[in-house]
Amino acid sequence: MLRDEEGFTTAGMAIALLVSLSLLFSAAQVYRVNRLAADVQDVADATALAAQAQVAEFMVAVRVTDGVVLSMTLLGITAYGLGVVALCVPPVAEIGGQLVSAGQKVLDARDAFAQRAAALLDELQKALPFLAAASAASVARANEDGGGEGYHGVALLLPSQGEAITVGASDAETDLKQAVEAQQDELAEAAARAEEAARAANDAKERGFRRDCGDAPAYCMYERADHLASLGAAENPRYASVDTWSFSVALERARAYYAKRLLGERPENATVEEKARSALRRNFYRYAVGALREACAQPPDENGAVSFPLLPRNADQMRGTTLYTDPAYPVDTEGEAPTMHAWEGCPGLGLTDYYGSAQTLDQGVFSECPECHFTVAALGSVAAASTSIENGFEYHYAAVAQAADDYRRAMEDAQPLSALAKTKAQGLLDKMVAALQDAGSMRIQARPPGADGCIALVVSSGSATGDLFESAFVSTPSTLGTRAAIGAATLVADETEEASVVGDVLDGFGADGSAAVGAGRIVLDCWAGMLRVYGSGQDGLASAVETALGSLPLAGSAGLGTWAADALRAGLSAVGLQPAETAPLKPVLVNSAAVARADGSAWSVRYLSLRDQALAASLTSADVFASLADRIQRDAYDRLAALEIEIAVIELPVVGLSLPLTLTLPPAVVQGAQGLVERAVDAVRSASGWLGREPAWE
After folding, report:
1. How many CB atoms lie within 10 A of CB 576?
2. Contact, 681 vs 154, CB < 8 A?
3. Which of 29, 125, 204, 251 lies at a CB distance of 3.0 to 4.6 Å from 448, suitable for a disulfide?
């Protein structure tokens, strides 16, 4: 061998190679051992997720049930409200009574559904620890590899016991039921009487409209004013609909007509008799212009009624006007008795001593003028002819004036009746709003086992290790010892989901009952909308009610239906219903300390203490595993014998709709689950005897 100060010997080279190879194979063995040891943590995580998934499925059932209860609560209450609206419209008052009855039936059906569902969900949540344990054991066993390595997993839900699921009661809802049942007949009667009076008023207004301008081109005030006085369109308008017309239109038309007739009055011939009649007509027109001017100056009352002045058609009616009392006629005293004349131009008039009235003529001793023959009867008959025949303006004016008087009296009757109906309806709608605001007292809420999360424990059988990468450089036993890992999971809202799980489950519920009609159809359509309220809140409620209102014929002469519908909308806007949390829950992995801290029970406090000790000593604490196994065996032993559990049956008696609400369980949690859980618990308890005694691999 040649030796050089800058070289190395063969022995040194051999030693370096052996050390390097030993380190290389040792590192590979470490990697191999760590990889096999890490597998148990993956299984523990999967076990925790599987256990917590049972809680997520339970919460879906709770939310679906809560959605049904809430929708039926809102449906029953709003059915009362819709019934109140319908009771305000006499033509559909019968449907209103049916809607009130439907509201009661829906709320009764809700009570039965809610009580049964709450009771069964309460029992089901007691089985959740077993369901979680069975699912955990099944998933752990399913991770056995082909080499014979087996896993045993157990999971503990925290808290291990849920809060009792119960259904409350609503005093506001009870008040609504009692008030509607006690007052619905009174409301219907008041609305019917108000409708009758309003219909009479509308009939009077329709008559007035037709005699004013609605009958054109046939005889009417419009046609006569155009033909007899040649009034222009501005003074003599024509309306096509009674909805845009009012009695004030006829009043202004008559005012323009008589003003034009007064200005244009002329005798038709030169005879004294005609001149006298012309003078009396002029006085009549002058009276009409003054009376109509005063009437037009008075605004319509709150109902749109106006007062038409009396235009006398005979001497008796004339005696009730200023035509009778105004001193407008010249009197001379040249004869044996004073003589009253029709006008100043009468040929028989001498020197005028004074002016008298028709009343004076009636009460005194006067001689009749041989020229003009003026008498009270002559003055009273000025408008008699044109009032008695269809082609006279006064004929149609008198008809419109009578219609206006009928309209005023009918509206005076209708107003207190309408006010009474509105007072009763508003009181009932206020109670409906109060019941809607108290709808939260009838909700199905749950805090089940596992609400804070779950802690899972998995141990390996220690037999599936193979040769563990055996070589001459590393000496190791052929198997690894017992390995264990703890995993934890909790539930979070899955915000990535676009649809609501509750909505998806309930979407098909409103589709049945397509043959329903009348109140049943309205209730069913409204429920289809109420099912969406769970996730949309106030907007969904308003939309559902609006759809139902669209199915009711609200038109009526008294306008109570439209008013009640608006009052219902206004009431609903004050409810402020907020949407529920509808995003599906999904299990996610978390640190077991987070779950234990959220639970805060005595066991969790002890677990945190042991966990901290184990981490500080870098050793596995067998106490944690043993106590976990004991706790699971104590809490998780409710039995389930069926894959599908019927939580309750949703019944809508109004339309005969009956739908079961079921929860389907995976086969793993019921088929041989008891033995599987027991074996897993025994394996964990047995493993706790070895954990902590065996040194970590070096």
Report:
1. 11
2. yes
3. 125
How crowded is the C-beta side of 294, counted as CA atoms within 13 Å?
8
Q: From 502, 553, 561, 551, select the one nearest 524 (Cα to Cα).
A: 551
| Contact (CB, 8 A) for 90 and 195 | yes
Tokens linked to 188:
């219907």
**Mean pLDDT on 155-174:** 86
Domain parsing of the chain, residue ranges: 10-77+111-170+448-509+584-690, 201-312+383-419, 315-380
Interstrand relation of 339-340 and 367-368 (parallel, antiparallel or unpaired): parallel
Q: pLDDT band at residue 634, thresholds of 50, 70 and 90?
A: low
Cis peptide before 159 (omega within 30 of 0): yes
Q: Supply 229's token pair.
A: 């006085």
- CA 223 from chain center: how many Å? 52
Q: Which two tokens stand for residue 474?
A: 């590393």
| Residues 38, 460 contacting (CB under 8 angstroms) | no
What is the side-by-side strand order in the sheet with 151-158? 151-158, 453-460, 484-493, 585-589
Q: Mean pLDDT lowest for which of 254-263, 290-299, 520-529, 645-654? A: 645-654
515 CB-near residues (< 8 Å, 6+ apart): none
What would the mean pLDDT of 136-143 be, rounded to a whole number?
A: 84
Residue 157, helix vs strand vs coil? strand
How far apart (Å, rounded) are the C-alpha atoms in residues 330 and 308? 30
Q: Sign (positive/negative) of CA torsion 534, 537, 539, 542? A: positive
Query: Can you tell me whether residue 55 is helix, strand or coil?
Result: helix
**Spatial separation of the C-alpha atoms in residues 116 and 393, rounded to whole Å:** 77
Q: Are 21 and 473 in contact (CB under 8 A)?
A: yes
d(CA 135, CA 280): 110
Rg (CA), the chain: 49
Exposed (0-12), middle (13-18) or buried (19+): which is 598, by Cβ within 10 Å? Answer: middle
Closest CA to 188 of 309, 276, 90, 296: 90
Write out the E strands in 344-405.
354-356, 367-368
Q: How many CA atoms lie within 13 A of 669 on its CB side?
A: 27
For residue 529, what pLDDT is reported? 72
Residue 311 neighbours by CB distance under 10 Å: 25
Contact 455, 592 (CB under 8 A): yes
Q: Which residues of 236-274 are buried (b: 16+ CB within 10 A; e: fewer)?
A: bebbeebeebbbbbbbbbbbbbbbbbbeeeebeeeebee
How many Å apart are CA 78 and CA 206, to the nearest integer? 37
- Alpha-carbon distance 75 to 81, whole Å? 10
Q: Dmax over Cα atoms in the chain, in whole Å?
A: 188
Q: Which residues contact 167 (CB under 8 A, 6 or more apart)?
A: 69, 111, 114, 115, 118, 442, 444
Q: How far apart are alpha carbons 513 and 521 in whole angstroms?
A: 8
> Cα separation of 207 and 215, whole Å?
10
DSSP letter assigned to residue 270: S
Query: Left (φ > 0), alpha (ψ -120 to 50) or beta: where does 512 sit?
Result: beta
Tokens coding 588 = 């996610």
Question: Does the pLDDT of residue 581 top 70, yes or no?
Answer: no
For 469, counting Cβ atoms within 10 Å of its Cβ (0-12 exposed, 13-18 middle, 19+ buried), the class is: middle
For residue 686 the two structure tokens come to: 């047995």
Task: Quote the CA–CA distance of 664 and 467 in Å, as a whole number.
Answer: 44
Task: Determine the straight-line distance between the first and last CA of the chain, rounded to whole angstroms.
Answer: 40
Helix, strand, coil percentages for the chain (3-state, nearest 5):
60, 10, 30
* Residue 514's pLDDT band (cuts 50, 70, 90): very low
Query: What's the CA dihedral at 355, 360, 364, 366 to 10 degrees?
Result: 50
Q: pLDDT > 70: what percent of the chain? A: 77
Is the pLDDT at 463 greater than 60? The verdict is: no
